[in-house]
Specification:
Layout: H1 4-7, H2 9-32, H3 42-64, H4 69-75, H5 77-105, H6 120-140, H7 149-174, H8 181-210, E1 214-222, E2 226-233, E3 246-251, E4 261-264, E5 275-280, E6 297-304, E7 318-323, H9 327-339, E8 345-352, H10 361-370, E9 372-379, E10 389-390, H11 395-401, E11 410-415, H12 417-429, E12 437-441
Parallel strand pairs: 7-8, 7-11, 8-9, 9-10, 11-12
Antiparallel strand pairs: 1-2, 1-6, 2-5, 3-4, 3-6
């Protein structure tokens, strides 16, 4: 029996949005239920409301990044992390506007910026705002500032805890709006929830991973400078996953170090004895995959993701569009379909640099014998004797290969951001229903 989530994912996603809005707007209700003190005008109350909403949004950032499966299964981690980034900026602006309004409407409050003479609650607000500013700046411009991912992640957590902790302290210290016991209890609950999420991510989840280790069985070279990392569970049954999902991989170090990397499973979702990851050598960590020795200990946090055809069991068929290493989750779906003897039509449009760069080239040809599979290779740098498609996956090319009845298929797209944007725009122009478009982004970090 299919789960409710798979039957009506839109309803579940909408419900979580409603819950999110109710939580961040709860400070407004708190203000309405508290009589305004004499002499406190509209702008003062408005600035306080903005500050409380911003603080509530910051508290919820801990939940957004905790990889809670209930949330993740409704949207996918890539969407949640994008939402996390955008709402962090919005929260920062709301919190920043809060003191600016105070300074403009009541210039005497500028004295609160005198750090050494101001009351402790004002000093807490200043430090919290500086921490939040550093958090936003180092996140938006991390790559331009050449900050490595692991140190950035450590400091990102420190800045977040400082901003939220001292922000709550500031609110309690001011006292005008948090003097009633039920309001103190509500904001204390917010703070404890954030603390619990932090403990869960940093301590409980890594401990759970140590109880389910994996061993590297082998590393297999593939075309396109890709390496297949094969893992086998040690002392447990591993986990089942839906084809197209991914996991966070920690290799040869303790999961408490928080040095993990997301990779899609390339193996069949119905293959339970081992897991395969297709990893392209493009950075410091991925360039080391080819040197990993059999027997190396690995840990996995997963599975995650909604980029899977298992959610669309009643679809008539599928169009899959991949660029480079974006073939990995799609390969998982094709291998699973072959294992299940799925008789629905599959179309794969696969963009590569050259013929020799086509990862899983030979296996794709074999899958054509097991599935109703059409493969269209698109080469950006083709040899003179190449008679197939060249250039980029644009609207004209897609129009030649996707079904005439656009809504009869579901479309799965995984490629670099530029190609995904181009394909998405083209499919919209070709009137593919937006509910039938499913996209997986490379870069989650």
């Amino acid at each position: 029996m299919r789960s409710l989530l798979m039957r009506n994912p839109i309803a579940i996603a909408t419900a979580w949005i409603g819950i999110y809005l109710a939580i961040i707007l709860s400070p407004l209700l708190m203000l309405l239920l508290y009589p305004t003190a004499p002499g406190r005008g509209f702008w003062l109350e408005f600035s306080v409301a903005l500050g409380f909403i911003g603080l509530a949004m910051m508290v919820l950032q801990f939940a957004l990044t905790a990889r809670i499966r209930t949330f993740e299964s409704a949207y996918g981690i890539d969407v949640i992390l994008q939402f996390h980034r955008y709402t962090s900026v919005v929260a920062f602006l709301l919190i920043l506007v809060h003191p600016i309004i105070l300074f403009v409407t009541d210039p005497e409050t500028l004295q609160l910026l005198n750090f050494f003479e101001a009351p402790w609650r004002a000093r807490a607000a200043v430090i919290a705002t500086l921490a939040l500013t550093l958090l936003v700046v180092t996140s938006i411009w991390r790559k331009k500032l050449n900050i490595p991912y692991e140190p950035w992640r450590l400091w990102h957590g420190i800045f977040a805890v400082t901003a939220v902790g001292l922000g709550l302290a500031h609110g309690f210290g001011v006292g005008n709006y948090l003097s009633l016991e039920w309001k103190i209890a509500l904001w204390s609950l917010f703070g404890l929830a954030a603390l619990w999420m932090l403990i869960f991510v940093r301590l409980i989840k890594p401990w759970q991973m140590t109880q389910h280790p994996y061993l590297v069985e082998k590393v297999v070279p593939e075309r396109g400078d890709v390496w297949t990392l094969v893992l086998r569970p040690r002392g447990h049954n591993g986990f089942t996953f839906q084809p197209g999902q991914f996991a966070w991989l920690t290799l040869n170090i303790s999961p408490f170090r928080m040095r993990e990397h997301p990779f899609s499973m390339a193996s069949s979702g119905d293959q339970e004895d081992c897991l395969e990851f297709g990893i392209k050598a493009v950075g410091d960590f991925t360039n080391q995959i080819k040197t990993v020795k059999p027997g190396t200990v690995a840990f996995l946090d997963g599975p995650y993701g909604v980029f899977t055809f298992d959610r669309y069991w009643d679809a008539a068929g599928f169009v899959m569009i991949a660029g480079g290493i974006g073939i990995t989750p799609i390969m998982s779906m094709l291998r699973t379909a072959a294992d299940r003897q799925d008789d629905r039509p599959f179309s794969l449009i696969y963009s590569s640099s050259t013929w020799d760069d086509i990862t899983y080239q030979e296996e794709l040809e074999e899958l054509k014998e097991k599935l109703d599979l059409t493969v269209v290779h698109v080469l950006r740098n083709a040899e003179d004797d190449w008679s197939g498609e060249t250039g980029y996956v644009d609207q004209d090319l897609l129009e030649r290969y996707i079904p005439i009845h656009r809504g009869s298929r579901h479309y799965f797209i995984c490629a670099n951001p530029k190609m995904m944007d181009q394909v998405e725009r083209a499919l919209h122009q070709l009137e593919v229903p937006v509910t039938h478009l499913h996209m997986e982004h490379y870069n989650l970090v």
